[in-house]
Amino acid sequence: MSKDFWRNETIAVMGGGAWGSVLVHLASAHVKEVRLWVRSEDIAREMNSTHQNSKYLPGLELRNNVRAFSEMSQLFDSPIRAILWVLPSRATRGRAKEMASFMTGEELIIHATKGVEEGTLKRVSTVLLEELPCLRVGALSGPNLAKEIADGEPAATVIASSYEEVIEAGTHILSSEKFSVFGGRDLIGVEWAGALKNILAIASGALDAIGMGRNVRALLISRGIAEMVRFGEAMGAQRETFLGLAGVGDLLATCSSDLSRNYRVGYRLGKNEKLTSIIRDIQSTAEGVRTTKYVWEYARERGILMPITHGVYQMIMGEASVEQVLDSLTESHFKSRLYEWKPA
Amino acid sequence: MGHTESQKKTIDSCALLRLTKDRPQVIQSLTRATTKSLDSYEKEMILAEALYTERSRLRNQKFKFTQISTLPRRWRDQKMWGSIHSGLLKSSGEVDRTDLLERVIKYYGDEIAGRFSPRVYDFATSAVPYGFNWLLNAASVKRFLPWKLTKNLESSLFIEGEVETLRKLEKKGTVLLVPTHQSNIDSILIGYLIYLMGLPPFAYGAGLNLFSNPILSFFMGNLGAYTVDRLKSNLIYKTTLKNYSMEILKRGTHSIFFPGGGRSRSGAIESQLKLGLLGTGLKAQIENYKREAQNPNIYIVPMVTSYHFVLEARSLIENYLIQEGKHRFVRVSDDSGPAMIQVFRFFWKFFSSQSNFTVRIGRPLDVFGNSVDEEGRSLDLQGRPIDPKKWLTTLGKLDHNLQRDEEYTKRLGEVLVDRFYEENVVLSSHWVAFSYLRALRKKYPDLDLYRFLRLSKNQTTIPFERFSEQARAVLLLLKRKEGEGKLHLSEAMRTQSFESLVQTGLKRLGNFHGVSVVEKQGELIWSGQMNLLYYYRNRLSGYGLSVKADQGHRFLRPGEKDEQGFLA
Known about the structure:
The structure holds 2 protein chains of 2 kinds. By secondary structure, chain A is of the alpha/beta class. Chain A is built from 16 helices and 8 strands. Chain A folds into 2 domains: 2-185, NAD(P)-binding Rossmann-like Domain (Rossmann fold, 3-Layer(aba) Sandwich); 189-332, N-(1-d-carboxylethyl)-l-norvaline Dehydrogenase, domain 2, CATH 1.10.1040. Chain A has helices at 2-7, 18-28, 41-50, 72-75, 89-100, 124-131, 146-150, 164-174, 187-209, 214-234, 245-255, 261-270, 275-281, 287-302, 307-316, 322-332; strands spanning 10-14, 33-37, 66-69, 82-85, 108-111, 137-141, 155-161, 179-184. In chain A, strand 4, helix 5 and strand 5 (108-111) form a beta-alpha-beta unit. Chain B is α/β, with parallel strands linked by helices. Chain B has 3 domains: 5-112, no CATH class; 158-310 and 354-423, Glycerol-3-phosphate (1)-acyltransferase (3-Layer(aba) Sandwich); 311-353 and 425-568, no CATH class. Chain B contains 26 helices and 17 strands. In chain B, helix 19 (428-443) packs across helix 24. The longest helix of chain B has 22 residues, at 402-423. Chain B starts with a helix and ends in an 18-residue tail after the last helix.
């Protein structure tokens, strides 16, 4: 029933980056029409004529039932039943405010933004709930490097929501032979896992830049997970979520892949490049940079032990080189502190 | 005190009266709906469960002579369950299980469904103010004269908040009034307040145990009360009760129920709500949409009552501490005299001290927990009107969806708890209790709650100055919280001087209990009633005002406890 329902419906995707384009492509196989909202009219026009996203994901052929728009009013000129939200966290509140007046409240929303709001540290779903006239919101997260999925490699993701119908809708809209969707109820955990792993991806890139081997990476991942769990639990997440696809899964993928923007930022930081020039060169957003700042400031205030995050923060702020951070970590935190810690 | 013409008209046209006239149809419809609700269960199993739990209940219920009037009900119950037993012993070919189930539901429905008699209502609303006023004025011979009697009840009741909105919404949809619950006096008080506000009578759920008193039973049974028996835990009963609540809301009958379940035992404002009955509002609204009812909306109106002292405080807090502390709680013998004397003392002091009740009507909510404006429109967090029908549409169809609706009700419960805290009116006695306990905790920072409650009078004696220091700090925090819309201060708390507030607070703090909860003599202050102190202090828990919050500990939500076991 559900599958048949979606076959006759139109959905919207907000954000035409690499991941947004992949989601558009996956969804277009299961719904009548996918309406993609992009910032620029030129990009919209180009996508509609070439059926490609040449800027962010060249080579992926989009189906004919995909239409790109840059005007919100046009996007909503026919009923939209579901919205996939793939905009950066920084743009979320503003765009949501803009979009709210076009919505009816019936729409199901799934966001795939791995970050938190600047300053407030609010999760993306919280921002959406505050700004949109909807309640049924979920989050999608997992080891999902856009290019690999676009190339047709097998992958899996998690959709978490308090509402089963959101999970069901996401499953019907996005599942394919190669792309599996799992459901979960821990929305807080999935969102925080997605945001926090970006910090570790930066750290991982930095370690690779100075030629560190697998032992150090394993150390980073295992202690990194502990750090994520500590912070996540303080925010109300469930520990188990961090052991699943959205936690360890995503961490392993991003910590070892130069396809990850955050990893690339870390790698170049490790090569002693300035953050400003790295950000300028990377065309899309590296959420981890902002997340590191806010998470570290929050954790420091509340006494949540996050030595790796602190190290990444120091690198981003130009306060220490990757070697100095590594020395300080191995000296003070990775020694005999496997399961217990005391605040410094 | 007779009714005015408009009051008569309100009563004659009220939904509660229609409900009484339609009682047989209501029970019939209830039976149908409940049978359908239980469709997915194996009938044999749920009937057997009901039979088992009901027989256990009847076996374990101790009979008291004072409950002699309940004997016929007991006999009826025994006969009913005897016949269900015989039915279940026969094969389903001989005795149809659906018939048996319908019989049980109908039996429960008949027990639950209330009646309303305008004549009894007329009598009660006239008698209540006389009764209250007699008590209010009992200490003053001068005001004991008949022509003075009717004036003073209203002046002792402070009704604040969204009264006008409530009056408007009552005409635009069905109101579900959800008060906080501290004392058994709440039901009478709220019933009378509804009358004072010029609203039609509301239906309300009352514990079946209260019906064992024949006089109370007569009044409640004729004033729209439906029975709720907490001893009946089987699925058929619980489903029938929920469906009854839904049925009467569907029929436009304004209702009251206490979402916290029973009275607050800790003294704190409710933080855990019973979502089952609360969710009947949403179910009724969906049904109303489906049958295209004229006024489909159900409005949830929070109400917070504030008292300086609560008759049952001693037993409530003891029950709470026994359950929470188990072996750690050591019960101290009660030296406050026989129960009847306590009750008499309570009423005497309650009214003779010219004490006042403060009742605050909170901002109304829709069934999802959104705010509602005076026009009855649901508003989103940005204050924009929304169409609730859209939130109830799944795969293009407006209908019930068990999982989704449970989440909506959970959200409503969370918002409602926040509203209870925001609408609470802080009285001087609450502030004194909270500040004194805070000062004492500064002296004994490492004691856990149960050791703390066993401090002797000498150990609780501290210089008044130390209390005063805490009281000033707490007052400052309270004023800040009021500015942020997190609570309300009583008129006295806002306007009186610090010294006079302390004096009033100390005087009123649970002073009917026979012994003062907190005493001051010269420059010293102490407590000989630590359990009661904790009870009254808890009214301000959940606001992040405790000594731990002050020391930078993580913010604990209402109902959470700190490391020493104190409600945060």
